[in-house]
Amino acid sequence: MTPRLLVLRALGLGDLLAGVPALRGIRRAFPGHEVVLALPPALREAALATGTVDAVLPAEAPRRGVPSLAHWPGPPPDLAIDLHGNGPESRDALAALTPHRLLAFAQTTPRPPEWRPDEHERERWCRFLAAHGITADPEDVRLPAPTTASPAPGAVVIHPGAESASRRWPAERYAALTSEVRAAGHRVVVTGGPKEDALVLDVAARAGLPQQDVLCGGLPFGELSALVAGAALVVSGDTGLAHLAVAHATPSVTLFGPVSPALWGPPRSACHLALWKPGPPGDPHGDIPDPQLLRIGADEATAAALSLLRPGGTNAPHRRGEEAGVR
């Protein structure tokens, strides 16, 4: 019987993509295992598209909590790895399955590495695995090229939404940026998640976008991935789409507020610009826009976006391998 390996990371799209380097290290270290990833069922397509896992165990809990894994089928996993967090709750959810071996920050044997709250998410989990003899490269973020055609090849993609209000830059500023980028000759499309139609329509109306450039309803992952992979530029807040741009080496401008890009930002590169005003950390799940996020003006973000675009709207669809040099 093929040995089975269960990884717990039942969080959001950005968390999944930030975890790809660690998942890729696990995949390489255990080529003979069936690797199963426990995460929300809405992310199944995205998880399989990473090429790092064989199957998905649907698992989610309210407010990004630790889900029950009691529906795990068959005998206990040969190995269970906690990439969810550093608390006993996620460790205990895996331990309840009585795996033959368990790796978690909250365990006592074998002794885990120290948890560093100021460490970048990608580096944290690669270092954790390295302490257990599993090699993972935090820069190994790329996804395979999508097989689906982009609905707007070569466009600038504006994504104004985010899971929490604290990470949502104001709609009127996104609209101002959109108008300026269009005035410079570039096609712009606005997109959002399945519950963000009102926000998408607000930005589009303020910017005077034609209907064909307004992508409502939340695109299926395959189409969204193709949109980002074929885009000239992605502009968004600190959310999953920013990580998807990095995964496809698509130029991006990401607007940070409550959380520093030193913890969740893109790799240092001339084609990924992270805008952030230093200050005390805020609540990434807060219900009002973060004060530091609001310090980023529309003119500053527009200038950053235009700096990554070819003049006069001559952008071809983005192609992998065009990434600019690291700063």
UniProtKB/TrEMBL annotation:
UniProt keyword list: Glycosyltransferase, Transferase
GO MF: ADP-heptose-lipopolysaccharide heptosyltransferase activity
CDD domains per the UniProt record, alphabetical: GT9_LPS_heptosyltransferase
Domain of life: Bacteria
Entries under InterPro entries matching the protein: Glyco_trans_9, LPS_LOS_Heptosyltrfase
Classification via Pfam families: Glyco_transf_9
GO CC terms in record: cytosol
Positions of the UniProt region annotated as Disordered: 308-327
Biological processes per GO annotation: lipopolysaccharide core region biosynthetic process
Protein name as annotated: Glycosyl transferase
Organism this protein belongs to: Streptomyces aurantiogriseus
